[in-house]
Structures
1.
Amino acid sequence: MIKSDTFKTVIPSKIFEAAAMLKPILLGVEGQSREIVEQYGAGICFEPENQEDFLRKLLVVKNDADLTETFRTDVLDLHMILTGSDWLKRCSITCER
């Protein structure tokens, strides 16, 4: 992503979409979005406009199955907070059985 002051106050809709799909978030913006991802442990952030940092963080997510599973659990919690609903968690627990 491009470094921009706009992204410091705007939350990209992709965060909501990733949370709904239970996918770890790989985020390259600063500000509120980064705070959300870090606070809820829903993914990993890289420095905007830094290709090396992006690739390094991508490999971390790709190669660390335990970390990815942790992100999956935490992104589910983030989804519940964003939507105010736990229906997805109930569905996820049912589907895993």
Note: The chain has one domain: 5-96.
2.
Amino acid sequence: MTAHLWEKSYPPGVSWDAPMPPPVAIESILDKAAANWPDRVAIDFYDRTLTFAQLHDLAIRAAKGFQSLGVGPGINGSFQLRPVSCRAHHFRFAGNAHGGYGFRLPEP
């Protein structure tokens, strides 16, 4: 018998307590994806798509825009938009990551 009920749903050889890989900054994931697969679709949202290169470009532009407003490392902010209904959420999120500052998404 397994110690945890969910363990029986795991494929053979997969363990729930496997060691975690070292943390990776989200902006470096986007940087690598844009370099490796620039023309692949990163986001397909309400019949509009963004490639990894386009998402990366928008993220960099958003980060520069936030910086021009005085936002930088050590500054925390908040997005006042609904992530599920706003395509801009994706590049604003990545832009914040590239800028190195914190933010939160307020939930209704």
Note: The chain has one domain: 25-104.
3.
Amino acid sequence: MPGKFDDLRISTFVISDPNIRPSKILSLLENEGIIYRRVSPIFLEHYPVEFNSKRSQVLSKKRLSLSEIGCASAHLSCYLKFLESGDDYALIFEDDAHLIDSNIDSLYELTRNFLAFKKATFKRESIALLYYSESANVIQANEYFYKIVGNASHAMAYLINRLSAMELLKKNAHFDYVADWPKGTGIKFFLPKIKLFEHGSKKGFVESFIELGRLDNTLNFQSKIIQNLKIIFFVTYFKNISFFSGITDYIKILWIPIFQWQYFRVFSKLFPNSKIKKIIRD
């Protein structure tokens, strides 16, 4: 249906290069007559001038590859274009987002319900709706949505408002993070109760651009323990104090996330009937 999202004041973006490989979400939007802006994935040969490898390794707790920084750059480009528009929200797809059964009507209705749900607060809150999340700790927000408690995982299809876009641009000005969600942004994340999207690579038709150049950043168990102990006892903070706006910033970005995962794991076992539950989607 032409103009399906026109009434919602949404800028739609697809990070894709059809000259390199086809994208099903791109084709779907075109077939439905939905206006979108295509942003090309960014393939870097050198690290950006703004990038500080030590700072990034401290904040993201791993060494980022050129592919990961290129992916983050493409998302930041979407945010800039969105803020230049007069729209209230940005709907952003990576090219490997697979809409189950190509059900654009369900996507539209879900999006419309979310905007109605957050209408009263969207101008004063940083909010995001993740149409897909591999796993999340959640509590019920209303009959259609969960609110994510703790960290949000990578999402190849999501909706953000203007305040969130500004916060993400500010937080990742030096490309310290991949295209996931930087810690300490204050963004409130939500997740649909129904599963609308699957990861394209799991459907066998596409591999994420970011996977093409991702380094093996996995630390062994001993290294992780040492790294976390340095964070817990503020060794990391005092050795890298210039990387943080203050101790509160450090606590939000590095200190709290260490405890959140274990907290929710223990909490769910101690209180199996609690309102917080874990969602895992393949």
Note: The mean pLDDT is 85.
